[in-house]
Structures are given as structure tokens and as C-alpha cells.
Design brief:
By secondary structure, the protein is mainly alpha-helical. The protein is built from four helices and no strands. The chain is elongated. InterPro entries: BfmA-like_N.
Length: 129
């Protein structure tokens, strides 16, 4: 028995023997005592706001496949948006920027050596030789 219920008194419930056997087997699998098992079940129903007579609907596997289908649908929509809207827009923007770029002019770093622009010291070297 759990320590928190050690000082409490026992009560009896009248249930059918087949139900009692089934409950005892079930309570051994989920907790140490039948009282705690019953308390856990009551807490579960109260916390989730459901009734034991209600159906829980589809099972987890069904829900998982439904969620996977929805996720695949979202992925397909995103891929379609990328192909139909994003890529063409990027291509148009790039072409606009290519046309708007100024023409590249060579930078003038040094003057080209021509006969008129050659330094005078080279003329002296040629005369000395």
C-alpha cells in the first residue's frame, strides 16, 4: 500500500466477481494497489474532461497517418510557392540589377608608356649607350 493512504480506512464496493478479477489484473499492471489504480483512472477522466462512456475516436496510428498526410500537403504547397513565386521573382530581380549596373570602366592607375610619355631618364640611358 502507498504511504499516503496508509492511515485511511478501507471501504467496500459491491461489484461483480468477473469485473473484480479484471480490475485486479489491470491494477497490477499500472500500480501497486487497487486504490491507487482506481484513483489514477478517476484523475485521468477528470483531467481530460471525458466520460468513460464516450468514444476516444481514432487511434494514435490513425492520427499519426493523418498528421503525416497534412504535413506532406504543407510541404507540397511550400514547394509550389517556391517554384511558382519565389524563384521567378528572384530571377526578375537579378535581371533588373544586371541591367541597372553601371558599365565598368577601367581604372586609371598608371599612364600607358608611349613615346611622348616615357620618362626622360630612359632617354639618357639610350643616349649613353
Amino acid at each position: 500500500m502507498d504511504e499516503e493512504f496508509k492511515k485511511e480506512l478501507f471501504e467496500t464496493l459491491k461489484i461483480k466477481s468477473s469485473v473484480a478479477k479484471k480490475f485486479r489484473r489491470f491494477s497490477r499492471t499500472i500500480s501497486k494497489s487497487q486504490s491507487v489504480s482506481l484513483l489514477l483512472m478517476i484523475d485521468f477522466f477528470e483531467n481530460n474532461g471525458i466520460s468513460p462512456t464516450e468514444s476516444m475516436g481514432p487511434k494514435m496510428q490513425t492520427l499519426e497517418t493523418l498528421i503525416k498526410k497534412r504535413i506532406n500537403g504543407v510541404i507540397a504547397i511550400l514547394k509550389d510557392i517556391e517554384k511558382g513565386q519565389t524563384k521567378p521573382t528572384v530571377a526578375m530581380m537579378q535581371s533588373l540589377f544586371r541591367e541597372a549596373e553601371p558599365k565598368k570602366q577601367p581604372l586609371i592607375l598608371e599612364k600607358k608608356n608611349t613615346a611622348e610619355n616615357q620618362p626622360k631618364y630612359q632617354e639618357r640611358k639610350q643616349q649613353d649607350s
